[in-house]
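SAMPLE LOG
Freezer: B-3
Tube label: C17
Construct: single chain, 288 aa
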Amino acid sequence: MTEFDELMSSSLKRVAQPGDPAGVADAIRARVDAGDIGTPAQSSGFGSGGVLPWLPWLGLLVVAGVAGGALGASGVLGGHDAQSSFAAGSINTGVSALGCPGGSPVVALEPGQRVLAMQRSDDSEWLAVRDPLDLSRTVWLPTAVVVIDPGQADLNSLPIGGCPEPTLIKETHAPAAPKPTAKPSTPGDTSVPTITSASGSPNPFYNDQTITIKATAVDNVAVTSVHISWSGAVSGSGTMTKVGSEWHYQFSTTAASFGTVTFTLRAADAAGNKSAPVNVVTSHNYFG
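STRUCTURE (predicted):
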């Protein structure tokens, strides 16, 4: 084997790390270990040795380098780079992967499942790995449950990552509308009505003759009623009736009585205010 052959064989072995997630590199390593250096190509000036016998492997070497992310660190372009941004390994126990370090579980993983560590927490207690059941997302595992393959990057060389801190958005509210100012309460009606005139006719009246008591009354709002009562030769009470602008009450009696009958009037409004009493004095005579 020429010096070039030895270099290519050594480089292929370094590319084909055990457990490479691409799968292609494992096949390369197995065939190189068996002494297979590929099918010799026909020489056109380069001779039977040198580069041409390795041409079939160079294609696989590129595939393995792209799939595993290790072409530049494989030995073809230099020694193995310990600062790789990932490390392949497997899970040594059943575990629930989390969405963030110390967060909520998102998927259950079984012992032996292969994972690719991409990041670590700042305290190196957690590893961000590709979810083997959904390669489109990253999940977090405790570092203690991941066994990294020999020859992979040191975990401390992985970039530090984590979940983004939530952005707190202060909720703003429109200022509350001012409460309407309570209107001052209107004082109740306290003005009392006034009876401006009162009379009785005929006066005197006899036997069962009817006498009409008339009155006028005023108020700042309105007079709503006029109460009438009588005493003396006979007694009783009643309510006067509004007739036009006056208040009327018709009175008669069959009592065989002689003497004075005094009618007392008081006007009232809707607020319950009452006027001062006004008297109408009459005389009743009964002759049988």
